[in-house]
Automatic annotation (TrEMBL):
<feature type="binding site">
    <location>
        <begin position="186"/>
        <end position="187"/>
    </location>
    <ligand>
        <name>alpha-D-glucose 1-phosphate</name>
    </ligand>
</feature>
<dbReference type="Pfam" id="PF24894">
    <property type="entry name" value="Hexapep_GlmU"/>
</dbReference>
<keyword id="KW-0320">Glycogen biosynthesis</keyword>
<keyword id="KW-0808">Transferase</keyword>
<feature type="binding site">
    <location>
        <position position="171"/>
    </location>
    <ligand>
        <name>alpha-D-glucose 1-phosphate</name>
    </ligand>
</feature>
<dbReference type="InterPro" id="IPR023049">
    <property type="entry name" value="GlgC_bac"/>
</dbReference>
<feature type="domain" description="Glucose-1-phosphate adenylyltransferase/Bifunctional protein GlmU-like C-terminal hexapeptide">
    <location>
        <begin position="306"/>
        <end position="409"/>
    </location>
</feature>
<dbReference type="GO" id="GO:0005978">
    <property type="term" value="P:glycogen biosynthetic process"/>
</dbReference>
<keyword id="KW-0548">Nucleotidyltransferase</keyword>
<dbReference type="GO" id="GO:0008878">
    <property type="term" value="F:glucose-1-phosphate adenylyltransferase activity"/>
</dbReference>
<feature type="binding site">
    <location>
        <position position="106"/>
    </location>
    <ligand>
        <name>alpha-D-glucose 1-phosphate</name>
    </ligand>
</feature>
<keyword id="KW-0067">ATP-binding</keyword>
<keyword id="KW-0321">Glycogen metabolism</keyword>
<protein>
    <recommendedName>
        <fullName>Glucose-1-phosphate adenylyltransferase</fullName>
        <ecNumber>2.7.7.27</ecNumber>
    </recommendedName>
</protein>
<dbReference type="InterPro" id="IPR029044">
    <property type="entry name" value="Nucleotide-diphossugar_trans"/>
</dbReference>
<keyword id="KW-0119">Carbohydrate metabolism</keyword>
<dbReference type="InterPro" id="IPR005835">
    <property type="entry name" value="NTP_transferase_dom"/>
</dbReference>
Length: 421
């Protein structure tokens, strides 16, 4: 038996649910799952959950994948292959592989864990931390584990305070004065408010802590229930609320801040508008999300690239970037860039301009192109003279324009535009 004086994180595994498409991101997830979408100039969305686990002291992890998982799997193999089994460290990738039946993939978040019980058993863990792989935040899971043990809970649910009109997209809970959950509703049409605060609701982050032996028995029982959707938020947690002890854990108690007065930063970048805004926010003078904090780094796969290069300085042909983030390998040739975020290996050419735009790796912007409030998918070749972001009606003929006026540009869209010229 492992000694109890060790950190709880050393007796815990993190199980990351990363199988969802994220259809609200439109064509950004046509070829990759949402957790594999690029974010912040260098990382992928899943890197935040994995980095939080690693920084919290957890060295045993598993990632359940399903929808178009190749990009995600390749990223994890390249960027997260430093775990060493001889040091009792593991990161397993668990694609849906018809382990139960030939016609059965993962049918719910809980089922993704149930189908891998034998693998989890082999880890020899005491606690399991269930994580969503598609949110942007920094959190010390050790503090959540401590509350779980101190309150003797059957499940501890990470929770956020959100505006009531936004809570319908979450699991929403009522709690008593000790933080015990007294009711849990999954994505209610009319979310209940926090007592004493009618404008806000307490929403689930999709983060759960269980003692593994307890969850194991619960999952096996749930597996045989025909009425169950085999989902943590829809079935497992509500069942514990009714029959056991479900405890809430406030994100504000364990979020990692870069300063004492910094806000508790958490973002669901599940829509095109939210994704664009979260990336552009990083170009602020002092962004709420601190990617420069060496005490809580966001680990990822780092390409070997030369430094960014800026060339030409004559009249309206000047390579420069203002209030922007530019990754390695970029060549900014005679282009004006403002309030934008460029991933690695982006090349821009003379007389082009970018404003409030997010360009993923290996985008090429030809001469005289103008992009305003755009998100450009990986590898897109922006044609010479293309202007996007000035006339919504024109943009909507070929590109995806969000309710907030952000334009998504992908290779098939550019091909359609070229064909029409």
């Amino acid at each position: 038996m492992q000694p109890n004086n060790r950190r709880l994180s050393s007796r815990t595994m993190a199980f990351v649910l990363a199988g969802g498409r994220g259809s609200r991101l439109k064509q950004l997830t046509d070829n990759r799952a949402k957790p594999a979408v690029y974010f912040g100039g260098k990382t992928r969305i899943i890197d935040f959950a994995l980095s939080n686990a690693l920084n919290s002291g957890i060295r045993k992890m598993a990632i359940a994948t399903q929808y178009k998982a190749h990009s995600l799997i390749r990223h994890c193999q390249r960027g997260w292959s430093f775990f060493r089994a001889e040091r009792n460290e593991y990161l397993d990738i668990l694609p849906a592989s018809q382990r139960v039946a030939e016609d059965k993939w993962y049918v719910g978040t809980a089922d993704a864990v149930t189908q891998n019980i034998d693998i989890i058993d082999s880890y020899g863990i005491e606690y399991i931390l269930i994580l969503a792989g598609d949110h942007i935040y920094k959190m010390d899971y050790e503090l959540m584990l401590q509350e779980h043990v101190e309150t003797n809970a059957d499940v501890t649910v990470g929770c956020l305070t959100v505006p009531r009109d936004e809570a319908k997209a979450f699991g929403v809970m009522h709690v008593n004065e000790t933080g015990r959950i007294t009711s849990f509703l999954e994505k209610p049409a009319d979310p209940p408010s926090i007592p004493g605060d009618p404008e806000h609701s307490l929403a689930s982050m999709g983060i759960y802590v269980f003692k593994w032996s307890y969850l194991r028995d619960l999952l096996l029982s749930d597996q045989d229930r025909e009425s169950s959707s085999h989902d943590f938020g829809g079935d497992i947690v509500p069942r514990i609320v009714e029959t056991g002890h479900a405890q809430s854990h406030r994100f504000t108690e364990s979020c990692v801040r870069h300063s004492a007065d910094a806000p508790a930063y958490w973002k669901d970048v599940g829509t095109l508008d939210a994704y664009w805004q979260a990336n552009i926010d990083l170009t602020d003078f002092e962004p709420e999300l601190d990617l420069w904090d060496e005490n809580w780094p966001i680990w990822t796969y780092s390409e070997s690239t030369p430094p960014a290069k800026f060339v030409h300085d004559e009249g309206n042909r000047r390579g420069h970037a203002i209030s922007s983030m530019v990754a390695g390998g970029c060549i900014i040739s005679g282009t004006e860039i403002r309030n934008s975020l460029l991933f690695s290996q982006v090349h821009t050419n003379s007389y082009a301009s970018l404003d409030q735009s997010v360009l993923m790796p290996r985008v090429n912007v030809a001469r005289h192109a103008k992009l305003n409030r755009c998100v450009v998918d990986r590898g897109v070749q922006i044609p010479e003279g293309l202007v996007v972001g000035e006339d919504r009606a024109t943009d909507e003929q070929f590109f995806e324009v969000s309710p907030g006026g952000v334009t998504l540009i992908t290779k098939p869209m550019v091909d359609a535009w070229l064909k029409a010229q």
